[in-house]
Design a protein that fits this description.
With about 110 residues, this protein is an all-beta fold. Helices cover about 0% and strands about 40% of the residues.
Length: about 110
Amino acid sequence: MTATTARQVAVGPVSDLTRGEGRTYVIDGSQIAVFLLADGTVRAMDAVCPHKAGPLADGQIDGSVVTCPLHQYSFRFDTGACTADTVTPVRVHPAHVSDGTVIVQL
């Protein structure tokens, strides 16, 4: 059996984010979208929509989901599930702010 250890990565200062918007970071060759929600919490998920590779960080945030700007599919921040059952979910990554720095767990 192989054990996989989660890794925490500092992606940058939270001051680089704007409330209600997302930003894409490249971590180990993967694009990760990080969102600063209106309540000050951060969320992270894979940045590419599985439907047609839309940029999720550019999507509109509505409470607990982000909507892809290309075809309007919405993905839940907590599970990555798409509100349209026909679209593959995206991976979500735990994220938090520590001493003003956004930390994403991979």
